[in-house]
Write a structure and sequence with these properties.
Layout lengths: L2 H28 L1 H24 L1 H6 L3 E2 L6 E2 L2 H32 L2 H16 L2 H20 L7 H25 L3 H9 L4 H12 L1 H17 L2 H6 L20 H8 L8 H42 L1 H6 L1 H4 L6 H13 L4 H21 L2 H34 L5 H5 L2 E2 L4 E2 L2 H31 L5 H15 L2 H15 L6 H25 L3 H9 L4 H30 L2 H4 L21 H11 L4 H34 L1
Antiparallel strand pairs: 1-2, 3-4
Helix pairs in contact: 1-20, 2-13, 2-21, 2-22, 4-7, 4-10, 4-16, 4-18, 5-7, 5-25, 5-28, 6-7, 6-27, 7-10, 8-9, 10-13, 12-13, 13-21, 16-17, 18-28, 20-23, 20-25, 21-23, 22-23, 23-25, 24-25, 25-28, 27-28
Family: Belongs to the binding-protein-dependent transport system permease family. CysTW subfamily.
Keywords: Cell membrane, Membrane, Transmembrane, Transmembrane helix, Transport
InterPro entries: MetI-like, MetI-like_sf, Phosphate_PstA, Phosphate_PstC
Amino acid sequence: MTTGQQTTLKFRQKRRPLETTMHIVWFICAISSIIGIFFILIFLLYDAAPAFLDIGLIPFLTGERWDPTSIMPKYGLVPLIVGTLLVTMGAMVFAVPFGIACAIFIAELASPRMRNILKPAVELLAGIPSVVYGFFGLAILVKFLQDLLSVPSGESVLAGSILLGIMSLPTIISVSEDAISSVPRYLKEGSLALGATHWQTISQVIVPAALSGITAAVILGIGRAVGETMAVIMVTGNAAIIPSPIWNILSPVRTLTGTLGIEMGEVAVGSLHYHALFGVAVILLLITLIINLTALTVMKRLKSSQTGGCSRTGVFSCLMITDRLSGIIPYLPIGVTAILGLFLLLIGLWQGAAGILILYLIARLVDRYCIRQTVQKIWFSLITIMMGIVTFILIFILYDIFSNGLPYVTLDFLTESPRNLGRGGGIFPAIIGTFYLVIGSILIALPLGIGAAIYLVEYTKENILTRFIRTATDLLNGTPSIVFGLFGFTFLVLFLGFGISLLAGMITLALMVLPTVIRTTEEALKSVPDSLREGSYALGATRWQTVRRVVLPPSVPGIITGAILSIGRAAGETAPIMFTAVVFMQRRLPDSFFDPVMALPYHLFILATNVPGARNNQYATAVILLILVIMIYGGAILIRNHYDKKIRW
């Protein structure tokens, strides 16, 4: 053996402990989702068991009345489940077609300059805190629907669906756009070279190839809609009734999450009512599991039936499956007709369903019998209009809040503590408390999420364990935010003895945003060509060296996208911290991790719902919360653009 060979052998032996160590570290990160779900289930079931035993599981699930404060308490979940399903389905009817259309516009139709404007704008929409959406819905949307439809109150299924649809849009757009942009260019170029129009290429080649990422985006959007608490409390009316008739979208309802948010803060710990609320949380988790497993099954079947041929026979096979996909693709006609059908539901269920069917048939006839260029112009016009609507929504929300709030943002407001229940004084402790919570949660979630994605993509093949980890991640993502709050309360605050504290809030928020980091990082790592990995291994690099020096650098923009979405969600969430970390009034800053804090989202929620005569401070607080989000997003976008330019050069 030569001296050079001996040196190489010794060098590789020295690298083995590091490789083994990194493998173990990434595996621990990967199973963090499983551990999180396990602890959530254990502690929620433990607290829900007395309710299931005393009330009975069947009466609990099938009871048609929820009234725990009456002389004869009633604990029936049917009205709460119906309210949750109606609002969520309505939100997806709006968000999915608009989200996919906007993603197509940004990835395929927009110029580079316009894309550099629209993508940050969509991310800004994601960063608007949920309580700000709820405040906007309460102040503007509810009154608008009340005047437009001449109803006694605008708080209804329709208001909740529109608001949750708007809130879900950024997640669907961002992740779908990343998936569409990652489709190999040779698929698009091959389709165009064979004579297909740009629209045919998008609808029959690009969208099917990106279907996995788009489905992941929809799952994330459903998770956002199902998990929202504070916004639905503010705009749905909170009446625990079943709409009559069931398709009456102008009826007030109460969701499962809204029930937890309204009642948990006032219930006596250990009472039957207390345990029944944990039973509600368990049912929420089961509904989430059903939604996610259904979505994963559909994604697997669609991917195998529509894009499986592409991986085996290349671009020409992709172009040959056009006829087989014609019954399913394009998705946009279905989405557009579903949106119009939603408005027809104002007339009645059957009229609305007939309207959806007729409009869809018209769309299919246009696709089949019109000139290809005419079809392309029609759908490109619709996509552009939908992108314009989303942009208008963003501009209108920002204009309303800033025009009404900026005049009351003064130096005293920024540097003083609140007085007179928030009607006077400032919000300095809430600003600092929000910074603490967001920074702490991201510092916990980002390393765990990136490590888990690295393990799933780079260190293991598809097997039972990876499928279990991904399922646990999806389940964790779809878990309603209020359930994280209940888990943090029962495990961190009570069981571990942290109390209502900054540390408990950080850990709770980190667990909540972890799935977003994992999913977006995983998609970013998958977009790196395998040829780069193989070239690195051929040159003698180890797996960790390949990941660190070859795979991670081009994945940084996608990873930062996940961080941006996580920051936006952490900064705007109220439900996870309302039972674990925050108080409404506090004049001093926390001295340790075990002190409670003020936070801007919770402060705004209390001002908007419980403090009359505080309109000026409501808008001013919303402005500061938005400025904080814009600053965070702006910094993250600058970092991502820097890496984009570096990678291109």
